[in-house]
Design brief:
Layout: E1 6-9, E2 16-17, H1 19-32, H2 40-43, H3 50-58, H4 64-80, E3 87-88, H5 92-102, E4 106-109, H6 114-123, E5 132-134, H7 147-156, E6 163-167, H8 170-179, E7 182-186, E8 204-206, H9 212-222
Parallel strand pairs: 1-4, 1-6, 4-5, 6-7, 7-8
Antiparallel strand pairs: 2-3
Helix pairs in contact: 1-4, 3-4, 5-9
Length: about 220
Amino acid sequence: MTAVRAVLFDLDGTLLDTAPDLAAALDALRLEQGLEGLPFAEVRPLVSHGARALVRHGFAQAEGAEFEVLRQRFLTLYAAGRHAHSRPFAGVTEALDVLDACGIPWGIVTNKPESLTGPLLAGLGLAHRVRSLVCGDTLPERKPHPRPLLHAATRLGVAAADVVYVGDAERDVLAARAAGMRAYVALYGYIPAVERPRDWPAQGFIDSSQHLAGFLQSLLRTS
């Protein structure tokens, strides 16, 4: 196994707990449409699957143009309060400090569009620390395609085989494996109960965000 020379992360459900603001935007949209809000526990597992999955869950009967109008309105509502309650998961700041202290560059590869990602990171004081940021509209391809991860590695000047990717969705694992990177699953993230993440083809699993710093330290020691 080659040395770890860089680490890439998914955003929602891996580095940041954004579910409260995304759930609030969905509830606001439902209220605009004369519907009641949804239980947070019902919405949280869907967050990593993006705006389409959230709007589809909130408006199961919407199709075509109606669905697209709802999706765009959802994005507008979310953008207005995108970091009202979103925060790094407990232990994430310490984990990033470990990487910085060891001189290991880190980046983010997310399917979230740049117009939402950049301001969110800036609002949380993380924008200046990210060495490579690849968003859902940076390239024509999105995860699970490997190109966004390869693009991030190129920006860092690191070979794909020397990169670790941490995410909370199966597409993260598939993208990393296709890119020739090591994949680890953030089990604390937004994973629906019907999914079986331990069956995904990952190199390992992180049970708690508070274990992330220790996990990275052990990975750097053994690589």
